[in-house]
From TrEMBL:
Keywords, alphabetical: ATP-binding, Kinase, Magnesium, Metal-binding, Nucleotide biosynthesis, Nucleotide-binding, Transferase
Record Pfam families: Pribosyl_synth (PF14572), Pribosyltran_N (PF13793)
Primary enzyme class: transferase
Similarity remark: Belongs to the ribose-phosphate pyrophosphokinase family. Class I subfamily.
GO CC aspect terms: cytoplasm; ribose phosphate diphosphokinase complex
Function: Involved in the biosynthesis of the central metabolite phospho-alpha-D-ribosyl-1-pyrophosphate (PRPP) via the transfer of pyrophosphoryl group from ATP to 1-hydroxyl of ribose-5-phosphate (Rib-5-P).
Residues making up the signal peptide according to the UniProt record: none
Domain Ribose-phosphate pyrophosphokinase N-terminal residues, every copy: 5-120
MF (Gene Ontology): ATP binding; kinase activity; magnesium ion binding; ribose phosphate diphosphokinase activity
Protein name listed in UniProt: Ribose-phosphate pyrophosphokinase
């Protein structure tokens, strides 16, 4: 293990950062977060990082302060003469703004990529981007990891015999189909129509789920409207049980209440975003070991292809 590696974490991902650092084999570096009375904040490294490879762990979900904190940490590392600066972004915020889907809107994901590059990042590590093409928004290397390397072993431990994978919407068909192919099971698809964001107008199920143990697959669960509506429809169509796996547990607004009232037996998520409320239905799997292994591979110029089980 290289002695020139130092790992730091932003305030919102401090717990995950500590677990990643321990899994890598060292303690989390000392960084100080100061705040002015008007809400402006400042970050400073409380140890020398001159000539070091600095890994900065921070998810960038709202509020925008989380992204700004990451940018300040990158800038501070650059000005402190770090050899390389690697942004480890378990959850890449603004990823849902990956294209112009109507006139006069911003492409937020591209803007964030530009900001990270301008701040001085040399490499980015992230997980399950909402759209794969976001990797092309960067002019620096991007290690895009898949949570399937964590979810698949867990699925194989479940006591279910008649599994069918399902996509909660047509946009997730590719992801659900990849899981179905790997597990050699059938696929179902939910077709939904929206009038506005976070509101479903109607939904139908394509595929036979009667008597099956359904596992819905998605990258993000936000208000949980899509997943809970899909799970209830699956049960109405005769499904035996419904589980869901989602990498990023945004869980905003009415999400927790919807989840509790839904037919979902278990929601399996990762800790890329801290869980705000405990729930007997939520199972959290950590990404710490995965990111620690990839950091080790990156430092030693080793392939990380083995972590791309299902894309």
């Amino acid at each position: 293990m290289s002695s020139s590696v130092k790992i730091f974490a932003g305030s919102v991902t401090d717990d995950l950062g500590s677990r990643i650092a321990r899994a890598y084999g060292q303690e989390l570096g000392n960084v100080k977060h100061s705040k002015f009375s008007d809400g402006e904040f400042q970050v400073s490294y409380e140890e020398s990082i001159r000539g070091n490879d600095v890994f900065i762990i921070q998810s960038t979900m709202p509020p925008a302060d989380n992204l700004m904190e990451l940018l300040l940490m990158i800038d501070a590392a650059k000005r402190a003469s770090a050899r390389k600066i690697i942004a480890v972004i378990p959850y890449f915020g603004f990823a849902r703004q990956d294209r112009k889907d109507k006139p006069r809107v911003a492409i937020g994901a591209k803007l964030v990529a530009n900001l990270l590059t301008a701040a001085g990042v040399d490499r980015v590590m992230t997980m399950d981007l909402h759209a794969d093409q976001i990797q092309g928004f960067f002019e620096v290397p991007v290690d895009h990891l898949f949570a399937s390397s964590i979810f698949l072993p867990y699925i194989e431990t479940l006591d279910v015999r008649n599994v069918i994978m399902a996509a909660p919407d047509t946009g997730g068909t590719k992801r659900a189909n990849a899981y179905a192919k790997y597990l050699n099971v059938d696929l179902a698809i939910c077709y939904k129509q929206r009038k506005v964001a976070n509101e479903i107008e109607n939904m139908t199920v394509i595929g036979d789920v009667e008597g099956r143990d359904v596992i819905l697959v998605d990258d993000i669960i936000d208000t949980a409207g899509t997943l809970t509506t899909a799970s209830d429809m699956m049960m109405d169509k005769g499904a035996k049980s419904v589980r869901a796996i989602c990498t990023h547990a945004v869980l905003s607004g009415p999400a927790y209440d919807r989840l509790e009232k839904s037919a979902i037996k278990e929601l399996i998520v990762t800790d890329t975003i801290p869980i705000q409320r405990e729930s007997s239905k939520i199972k959290v799997l950590t990404v710490a070991d995965l990111f620690a292994d990839v950091i080790h591979s990156a430092i030693n110029y080793q392939s990380i292809s083995k972590y791309f089980i299902v894309s």
